[in-house]
Each structure stands twice: as structure tokens, then as C-alpha cells.
Amino acid sequence: DSIVQFENVGLRYGTGPEALSDLSFTLFSGQFYFLTGPSGAGKSSLLRLLYLAQRPSRGMIRLFDSDLVTLSRDRMPGFRRRIGVVFQDFRLVPHLSAFDNIALPLRIAGMRDADLATPVREILDWVGLSARGDALPATLSGGEQQRVAIARAVITRPDILVADEPTGNVDPEMAVKLLRLFEALNRMGTTIIVATHDIHLMTRIKRAQMMRLEGGRLFDPTGALRYPPKP
Ligand code: ADP
Ligand code: ADP
């Protein structure tokens, strides 16, 4: 099933040139996608469109079978909750412990402390940080912080996980470990989209599909600019 559809999407910041042009592609539910391309190619911009932090200047985006451009504002938060996001710089709340960072999305959704303790502890365990729940982000290594960020992104069980250079601030060994977490999530049915220029990393997920951006356009060796083929 298709989960994301772009038709002739363009994005322009202010009066500048188009940062993204003529993007037409379909992403399928349950797949693993790598988004590659040189710095400035538009990867972050494309991801921002996907997690609804940015509206397109033109074109159509369908997400979960709804047209985003006509989606009413009051339905936006519901959509955002179905998309987890992980950033290169972690973006943890500095004065909250690892536990409380992970619990945050559940608290925002109105879950009581008595109900969230178990799921938060389970996911802390899953990312290998069961002993670090009380730690503040600044006392954690980069790899540990990113595992907290991943746990926070998936605690609400989103349908899609978007990650923008998630391994950019960790060592190569940790990068592989983080990738294994994404792979495990993907096996549980989450659609994964990871922007990276780490070629070495991409070869590690055999069934992942590649999307390559260059100068704001999807690069397709056939020239059809239609990515990716139906699996
Ligand atoms: P990538 O993630 O591949 O490095 P970006 O999406 O960050 O690419 O950037 C694509 C283009 O859009 C670049 O030319 C960049 O300078 C421009 N750009 C990105 N964000 C903004 C912004 N907030 N305002 C103006 N221009 C931007
Ligand atoms: P505005 O100038 O209206 O604030 P922005 O581009 O800053 O527009 O987007 C902010 C708001 O637009 C978001 O809070 C969200 O409600 C809505 N929005 C974000 N992404 C999209 C999208 N892809 N299509 C339509 N609306 C969007």
C-alpha cells in the first residue's frame, strides 16, 4: 500500500530558487528508504515536507491517503503523531532525564504517569539504556543521546519514522547499532526514511531502497524521475 505520494511537488524558500522541483514519487508502507545526495540537495527540505514542518509551494502530497494541502489545521496534530522524527543533533530537552524525554510524547497525549512507566521502561531496555533512565542528556554520550531520541520518536508507535542524518554525530560502530534499531522497527512494520550520505551505512540494509536527490530533483538513471519502482 502507498503511504506517501508526491505529485509534482516544488518548494521555494521566500523568493529564492526552488529548493525542490518536480518531485513525483510514491513510498510504500513497511519499506525502508535511504535518501541520499550531496549537501544542499534538498534532503532536509524533503523530510520537513514529510513530517509536516513545511508546506510545499506547489504540487500535491498525499499522506496516509489524505491530501495534505486540503487537510484542515485541526487534523494536523493527529497526523504528526503518526510520524516519528529523529535529528542529527538529537534535540533532547536538556533539563529532562532520559526517562522523561521518552515519556514526553505520551504525557502530551494525556497518558497518566502510572500508565506510562511500563512502556517507557520497556523501550529504555530496548535501546539498551535501562540503567540510564535518570540521566540528563548532557551526561550521556552522543550514541546514548541518539538512542534516547529514537526511543522518544517511536514510543507512540508511529507508522513512519523519519531520520535526518541520524548517525552524523556518532562514531561508526554506534552508527551501525543505530541502524540495527531502525531495521528492527522496520521489521515490526514501521516505514523508515533515513537521509544520509554515509554510503557504507546504506550497504548494510540489503532490502532498502535508494532515493537520490541532486539540486532539488530526484535523480533517476532512467530519466523518468519516478522513484522508487513499486516493490
Ligand atoms: P540537504 O539537507 O540535502 O543538505 P537542504 O534541504 O537543507 O539540503 O537545503 C536545500 C536548499 O534549500 C539549499 O540551497 C539550502 O540553502 C536551502 N534552504 C534550506 N532551508 C532553508 C531555509 N529555511 N531558508 C532558505 N533556504 C533554505
Ligand atoms: P504558515 O505561513 O501558514 O504558518 P508554514 O509553511 O510555516 O505556513 O507551515 C506552518 C503550518 O502549516 C503548520 O503548522 C501546519 O499546520 C501547516 N502545514 C505544514 N505542512 C503542511 C503541508 N504539507 N500542507 C499543508 N499544510 C501544512
From TrEMBL:
<dbReference type="InterPro" id="IPR017871">
    <property type="entry name" value="ABC_transporter-like_CS"/>
</dbReference>
<dbReference type="InterPro" id="IPR003593">
    <property type="entry name" value="AAA+_ATPase"/>
</dbReference>
<dbReference type="GO" id="GO:0051301">
    <property type="term" value="P:cell division"/>
</dbReference>
<protein>
    <recommendedName>
        <fullName>Cell division ATP-binding protein FtsE</fullName>
    </recommendedName>
</protein>
<dbReference type="Pfam" id="PF00005">
    <property type="entry name" value="ABC_tran"/>
</dbReference>
<keyword id="KW-0131">Cell cycle</keyword>
<dbReference type="InterPro" id="IPR005286">
    <property type="entry name" value="Cell_div_FtsE"/>
</dbReference>
<dbReference type="InterPro" id="IPR017911">
    <property type="entry name" value="MacB-like_ATP-bd"/>
</dbReference>
<feature type="domain" description="ABC transporter">
    <location>
        <begin position="4"/>
        <end position="231"/>
    </location>
</feature>
<keyword id="KW-0067">ATP-binding</keyword>
<dbReference type="InterPro" id="IPR015854">
    <property type="entry name" value="ABC_transpr_LolD-like"/>
</dbReference>
<keyword id="KW-0547">Nucleotide-binding</keyword>
<keyword id="KW-1003">Cell membrane</keyword>
<keyword id="KW-0813">Transport</keyword>
<comment type="subunit">
    <text>Homodimer. Forms a membrane-associated complex with FtsX.</text>
</comment>
<comment type="similarity">
    <text>Belongs to the ABC transporter superfamily.</text>
</comment>
<keyword id="KW-0472">Membrane</keyword>
<dbReference type="InterPro" id="IPR027417">
    <property type="entry name" value="P-loop_NTPase"/>
</dbReference>
<dbReference type="GO" id="GO:0005524">
    <property type="term" value="F:ATP binding"/>
</dbReference>
<keyword id="KW-0132">Cell division</keyword>
<dbReference type="InterPro" id="IPR003439">
    <property type="entry name" value="ABC_transporter-like_ATP-bd"/>
</dbReference>
<comment type="function">
    <text>Part of the ABC transporter FtsEX involved in cellular division. Important for assembly or stability of the septal ring.</text>
</comment>
